[in-house]
Amino acid sequence: MLNKLSIFQYLLLSIVFFTTSYMCLSTHASSVAPFVGVSSFAGSFSIGDGLPAAETKVENVYALTINSKTGDLYLTDNNRVRKVSSTNNIMSTFAGTNNQVNPEDGQPAVNTPLAEPRGLEISSNGEVYIADYSTCKIKKVSSQGIMTTIAGTGPGQNNDRRLVSVYTGDGAFANETQLSFPQAIAFHPITGELHIAETQSYKIRKITLEGRIATVVGSGQKGQESPDGVLAVNAIIGAPGNIIFDSIGNMYLSDRSFHKVRKVLTNGTIVTIAGNGMSAYNGDGILAVSASLFRPSGLALSSTGELYIAESYGHRIRKVLTNGTIITIAGTGVAGYEGDGGLAVNALLDAPESIFLSSDNYLLISDFGNKRIRKISLLDGTISTIAGDGLGDGKAASVYGILRYPIDVKKGPNGILIADSGNARVRSVSNGGIISTIAGSGTNGNPQLRALRELATKAKFGTTYAITTRSDNGDVYVIDDTNNKIFKISNQDGSITAIIGDGNYGFTEDGSIAEGSSVGGLSGVALNSLGEVIFTESNRIRKILTNGTLVTISGYGNLQDSGQGFSGDGDLAQYASLSSPGRLFIHSDDIYFADQDNYRFRKIFANGTITTIAGTGYGDYGADDILATETYLARPTDIAMNSKGELIISDAKRIRKIDLNGIIVTLAGSNVAGFSGDGGPAADATFGTLGGIYLDSNDDIYVSDPDNHRIRKISLMCPTDYALNGSECIPVCFGVVSNDPSVCSGKGSCTQNNTCQCSPSYYGANCDSFNCSGISSNSTLVCSSHGVCSSPDTCNCENGYYGKNCESFNCFGVNSQNSTNVCSAQGNCTSPDKCNCKTGYLGSNCEMFNCFGVNSQNSSNVCSSQGNCTSPDKCNCKTGYFGSNCESFNCKGIKNSDSSVCSSRGQCISPDNCKCTTVNSYGVNCEFIVEGKISNITATKSNARLNDGSSIKTPYMLLVTTLSIIIMSIFLIL
């Protein structure tokens, strides 16, 4: 929202803010003025350390190896060496940092800069060796994590201060010798000497055990490769890609220049073991020496002698069997990313670079173009991804998006479009900041799409250079300047077609049909109000009419006459001379464009006349605060317009503005290239050479910063802990802006950053604390430890508790404080329905007790079945029974346990009930004895039973019985 105040006011306010301390703040939210700042909108240095390997970003993985002792995987990744733990699969940085000014030696490896490491080896004692390609050095990381240089003094420089290959001779100490861009390293299995493949000296050298450098392969000469059988040290080889050794010391090297794999025997001679020198695939199942390989790179050797080859440009993994024949084990020859979970031979790879054979029968692959590490099971042939998630699609663009030389940025149908030229894709960032790919497979190629309508995501581009969107239907137009075509991507079905270009660089006369015509030097594309496609081609601006006809708007030239120059201001544009016109912007059918090699921005009015609006024709970093037509431009690239009608331009490493009076000022950047300033004032930021720009409805500026692989955003920004609210920055308290109702826990006001003024009864830094009955809501004792203090003096009690402080509870419906009735008056209620019973009482409500071990409710057995158990061990006995357990009774006044009971001739079995047990006794108390035959009489109260089973009545029948006996005796005598 740069149009709310003048840029100078914002810059002044920015300086004031960053050079003064914060003012004292009142109880109301204190605001500060925003500043014009810069941030990274898409693209990031974040690589996912600390995450599982499959969720991280990996890029430029030239080398893979595994520590045989720990099982950890090491890989090169941009300017780092990274490690995947074998125990938890977490990715971390092992060596390297983005801080390129740190010392190179003697520091922890994670704090030491690297520059494109490409080779890795781990010694038997766990030291890690790194071939640091761009510094032309070999580094060693000790077991203590300290990095030192063991070989190489750095690259040379040419007159343009560009790094160049330098070769110095043999014999000197390795750390005093210049190396020529080391690509790979390997230890000799017997001597332990470290061998170095130098790509630009066409040699393989070694560091002897004395620390000196010596050549073992390669004469260093360019030319036709040497035939088999010559001494390797004298042989002409191409650029070596990788080197490995077998167990007896034979060396294998991939020759990327001559498309071969060669072997240096232990006797020093060199032979070819795979590759016929041709790059076109010619089949499997043939002898490896007859097979074509396309830029062989990584190598791996099995214990049985099978050789695995990463065929980088052939997008395959090949295997040379022990009988000398070659087969494919992964890849179809078509670049892409497909096939995980299936057979590797059916999967798609993209430029596999490095391979490593693990001890558990997996072949690890650096799938370079797909930015992933994949593995093939050699047991079942399946493939899967173990590290890297590609370009970050589906994730936050500013954190996980991987861009490579993004050259243009424009409005898209559903967000913002990016011409991700280095990745050969068109990317989209949604309004929610999520990045995705809408076109391009990432594989470079020359698609023939005039008749074929295929999905744009499957298309092969050379370089995606410029983009635009049709406003009425969302169709996207993209220039592929490598293949000399303009494509249209349908917003409706995602298909892609070429609207102009046959793939050949050329010129087609006006009046021709655009489709299939030859064009060249494409740079910019836009659409006018009629839907006509306007584009820049070499030194012309042309358009495709709605009927498909091609016409020129401005400039001239053909294959014989380039027409390059400067002329025509004030006249009709069709007669003007242009010099490499670049990107376009159309407003009200006026065409604004960068006339790049004329160091001007020019405008073609809707009436057809042309004029210069900025630049003098001299290329340099020009002054500000003067008329734009009087200042120099260093590299005019793109132009846009804000809502006030002011023009915003990208000029080399600066973003500049031309106001309505024609005065030019710099908004961001300087004449110094770099990457800095994110989060701070735009005027202090540095950029690389800028590309396309785009302004959204808030006048926020998006600019492609291809050298830094990012899209940068210039907008109103706030200091840390402040948030933009219209034209002011308001404080943020603990992550919540001050005008959010939930700020300060919704119980206070945010007066300044992370400073809350709390409402009554609330306290704490974020107003998240309060009391219940004088106890903090965060205390374990609050609400009697049986509830949650939800607001001041308000307890939400646990189930079973009640009362203001959750202090009350019941046991079986009786309040715990009711000692008369709770727990059957025989215990204490300690928690809801939990009774602590008195001694002798039991049951959940203390309602039960025992009498001498028998439950009081057991009427059959309690109190010897002769009474009621009224309290623990308290029996109320039936009539005739007595004793603590009602176990005692009398017979004729004598206790049942007394030896004299029942006249000592029986048992007292119940009160006054004797069972006579002695011979011939009977009677109620067993007091009678029968003489003679009659014996063993059992007496009861009602009768007596003789030993023959007959019974007699007692005692009231005594007389009758006596008389009967006398009569019977008389009868017997007679």
Automatic annotation (TrEMBL):
<keyword id="KW-0472">Membrane</keyword>
<feature type="domain" description="EGF-like">
    <location>
        <begin position="855"/>
        <end position="887"/>
    </location>
</feature>
<feature type="domain" description="EGF-like">
    <location>
        <begin position="815"/>
        <end position="847"/>
    </location>
</feature>
<keyword id="KW-1015">Disulfide bond</keyword>
<feature type="transmembrane region" description="Helical">
    <location>
        <begin position="955"/>
        <end position="973"/>
    </location>
</feature>
<dbReference type="InterPro" id="IPR000742">
    <property type="entry name" value="EGF"/>
</dbReference>
<dbReference type="InterPro" id="IPR011042">
    <property type="entry name" value="6-blade_b-propeller_TolB-like"/>
</dbReference>
<feature type="disulfide bond">
    <location>
        <begin position="877"/>
        <end position="886"/>
    </location>
</feature>
<protein>
    <submittedName>
        <fullName>Predicted protein</fullName>
    </submittedName>
</protein>
<feature type="disulfide bond">
    <location>
        <begin position="837"/>
        <end position="846"/>
    </location>
</feature>
<dbReference type="InterPro" id="IPR056822">
    <property type="entry name" value="TEN_NHL"/>
</dbReference>
<feature type="disulfide bond">
    <location>
        <begin position="797"/>
        <end position="806"/>
    </location>
</feature>
<dbReference type="Pfam" id="PF25021">
    <property type="entry name" value="TEN_NHL"/>
</dbReference>
<keyword id="KW-1133">Transmembrane helix</keyword>
<keyword id="KW-0812">Transmembrane</keyword>
<keyword id="KW-0245">EGF-like domain</keyword>
<feature type="domain" description="EGF-like">
    <location>
        <begin position="768"/>
        <end position="807"/>
    </location>
</feature>
